[in-house]
Amino acid sequence: MQPANETVLGNYEHLMLEHAPVGIALFEAQTLRLLSANPPYQSLFEPTWQLGQAIGQCLRDLLPKTVQAEVVALFDHVIQTGVASESQAYRTFSPTGGVRYWNWTLSPLEEEGQVRFVLVTITEVTTTVLAHQETERVQTMLRQTHHAVERERRHLADLETILLGLKQVAEPKRLAQTLLEALESCFSPLVAALYGITDEPGNFSLLAVRAPINLPVATSLLSATLSSQQHPDALHALQHPIPLIRRKSESQNPAQEPWWSVPETRCVLSLPLWGKRCEGLLLLALRTEEEADELLHTLRDCAPRLAEALASAHLHAALADEKHRLHTILDQLPEGVLLVEARTSRISYANPAAAHLLGFALPQLVGTPLNQSALLSPYGRPKQVQQSIFRWNFALIDALWGKHSTSQELSISRPDGSEVVVLSSAAPIRQYHGLISEAAIVFQDITALKHLEQQKDAFFAVANHELRTPLTIISGFVDLLQIQDTQQATVLSAHALESIQQECGHLLRLFQDLLDVSRLDQARLAVQPQVQDLLAPLKQSITKQIQTTRTHQFRFLLEDWQSSDQLLGCFDLPRIEQVVRNLISNAVKYSPTGSTIEVGMRLRRDPEGIAQEVVLWVKDQGIGIPTGDLPHIFERFYRASNSHRSASGFGIGLYLTRQLVQAHEGRIWAETMVGKGTTFFVVLPLGESTIKPV
Ligand code: ADP
C-alpha cells in the first residue's frame, strides 16, 4: 500500500498531465514503445489508437506511413546523441483531411549515462500558424496592390511630366526636345527620335533626337526625313494609329537598319502619334521588351495628346512665321507703326521707324503700358504739346472703340526736347469674332515737309519784296526820265541809267540764282571744268567787283605769294567767280557802309613746297552770325535770325555757293562773332582733280 498523501499526489500528477494544454508522451528508448501519453497527445493518433489503446504500442505502428521513416530517424538521432530536438509549426494531416500545426520537442531522459526514455512534448499552434498564414497572405496581397498602385502612380507621374512639359512649348522642335527629355527622365530609352509630318505628303522630318552621349554615331545614322515610300515604319504610321514593336533577330543586318547598330538594343518601338490625322512618329530603341510594354502602357494613353500638341505647335509655328513676315515688312516701313493691346493698353509692337520718330529706344517702347508712358502723359508739358498729346490719346481711344481716324496732323515732343510733326492715322484691329483686340497707329514724319512749307511761305514773302523793290526803283527812274527837261537830262539820266543798270543786274543775278537752285533740285546744274590757271581771271573778277562797289573799303591780299605761283587746277571759271561774287556781296550786305572788307588768297603747300590747295577768304566787320544759326546757313532758304533786320535776301546764295565748292572737291566754312564780323573760307584743291556733277 502506498501512503495516502503519495496517492493524492499521484492523482494530482495524473490530473495535471491529463488536463495540461501540452501533449506529453514518454517512449522507451530501446524499443520505441509508448509508455505513457496524456489525452492531448493521444488526440494525435488515429481513432483506433485513442482512448489508451496506443499505450504499449511501438512508435512506428502509431505513425502514418508517410512520416514513419522521418520521425523514427529523429528519435534515433536524439537517442544516439543525447541531444534534444525541437521543431516549430510541424504540419500534420488529420485522417479527416484537416491540417494541424505543432511545436514539439524530443527530450532524452538518461539513466547511468544512457538514454533510456524519450520525453515528447507537443503544443498545438494551428490557430497561430493559420492566423500567421492569413496575415502573410493579406500582406502579399497588399504588397501586390501597393505595387500595382505604385506602378499606376509612376505611370501617372510620367504622363504628367510628359504632358506638363508640352503645355508650355509651342514651337515644334522645342516641343519635340521637351518630350524626349521627359521620356528620357521617365524611361531612359537608348535612343529616342521624334519625327513630325511635313507639308509634303507621306514625309516625316526629324524634329529631335536624344541619346546618351556615347551614342553619337547611332543618332547620326538616323535620317533627317522618313519617306513612307521607303520606310515601313513611316508607311505604317500613316495608315494605322497602332504602335509597332520590332525585335532584333540574328538575320537582321545592322547596315540596313541603323537602330540595330545601337549597342544593347533588343527592340524598337514605333509609336504613330494620331490626333485627327497622323501628326508624327516616335521611335525608341530599347533594351528589353518589358521596357517596350512599360512605355506603351504610358504612351498609348498620351499619344493623342502628343499629336494634338504637335498639331498646335505646327499651327503656332506657321502663325509665328506669318507674324515674322508681317513684322519684317513693317520693320522696313519708313512710317512709324504702333500696335496697342486693347486689354492691357500696352504697346505690343512698334517698328524701328516709330521708335526713331518718337525718340525712344525700341525696347523702351514695346511692352510699356500707354498710361505710364512718357509718350502719352500730357502733364507738365507746354500747352501746345498737351493739346497734341490729347489729340493722340483721343485718336487711340477712338480706335479702341472701333473708330477710324485718318491724316491727323500732330506734333510730338521727344524726350530730348526736339519736336516732330506727324500725320497720323489710327484704326481698330478686330478678331474673327468681332472683338477689338488692338489698335493700330500709323504715322508719317512730315517735319521736313512742314519746314519746307514754312520756307516756301517765307520765300514768297521775301521774293515779293525783293522783286518789287528794284522794279519800283526802275519804274520810278523811267518816269523821271520821261518828265525831265532837256538841260538836266545828262546828269540825271546818267544817274538814272546807272541805277536802272544796277537794279537790273541785281534782278538778273537773283533770277540766275533761283534758276540754279531749281536746276540743283532737278540735278541739272552743270559744272564744266577745264584745266587752267585761275589766278589772272580770278584776280580780274575780284578787282572788278571791288571797283564797282563804292560803299565799302576793300583790301585784296595775296598772302605768302611768290611771283611764280599759279592757281593751276581743274575749274569751271564762271562758277568760281560766282562763288567769290556771292561771298563779297554777302559781306557788303551784312556789314555797315564804310567798313573794310578783306579778300585774300594763300596757298597750302606740301613739304616739297608744291602748292596743293588754295585758301580763299572774305572777311567783313559786319553783324556776324548767331551761334545757333551757324550750322544752318548753307541750307536752302535758311536765313539767320539777325539777317532780316539788316538786309533782304532769299537764303539761297550760300546754299548754291557750297554746292559749287563741293562740286570742285572743295570745302567752305565760316568763322564769326556776332557784332564783330564774319570770315568765309573756301579751300579748293589744285592739280587736275576730278569734278563731281552736282
Ligand atoms: P541771303 O540772300 O539771305 O543773303 P545767303 O544764302 O547768301 O542768303 O545767306 C544765308 C544767310 O547767312 C543770310 O541770310 C545771313 O543770315 C547769313 N550770312 C551770309 N553771309 C553773311 C555775312 N557775311 N555776315 C553775316 N551773316 C551772313
Descriptive account of the structure:
There is one protein chain. By secondary structure, this protein is α+β, with helices and mostly antiparallel strands. Residues 586-587, 590, 620, 622-625, 633, 639-640, 643, 649-655, 678 line the site of adenosine-5'-diphosphate.
- Look at the helices and sheets and give the structural class: alpha+beta
Q: What is the number of beta strands?
A: 23
What is the alpha-carbon Rg in Å? Answer: 58 Å
- Structure annotation, total helices: 18
Strand line-up of the largest beta sheet: 8-7-6-11-10-9
Question: What is this structure, in a nutshell?
Answer:
The chain is built from 18 helices and 23 strands. It is an alpha+beta fold and 694 residues long.
What tags apply to this protein structure?
694 residues, alpha+beta, six-stranded antiparallel beta sheet, five-stranded antiparallel beta sheet, 18 helices, 25% strand, binds adenosine-5'-diphosphate
What is the element layout, followed by pairings?
Elements: H1 4-19, E1 23-28, E2 34-37, H2 39-42, H3 59-62, H4 65-81, E3 85-93, E4 99-111, E5 114-124, H5 126-167, H6 172-187, E6 191-197, E7 203-210, H7 216-221, E8 225-227, H8 232-239, E9 244-247, E10 267-274, E11 278-286, H9 289-332, E12 336-341, E13 347-350, H10 352-358, H11 362-365, H12 383-400, E14 405-413, E15 419-430, E16 436-445, H13 447-483, H14 489-521, E17 530-533, H15 535-548, E18 553-559, E19 568-571, H16 573-589, E20 596-605, E21 611-619, H17 643-646, H18 653-663, E22 667-673, E23 677-685
Parallel strand pairs: 18-20
Antiparallel strand pairs: 1-2, 1-5, 3-4, 4-5, 6-7, 6-11, 7-8, 9-10, 10-11, 12-13, 12-16, 14-15, 15-16, 17-19, 20-21, 21-23, 22-23
The site of adenosine-5'-diphosphate (ADP) has 20 residues, from helix 16 and helix 18.
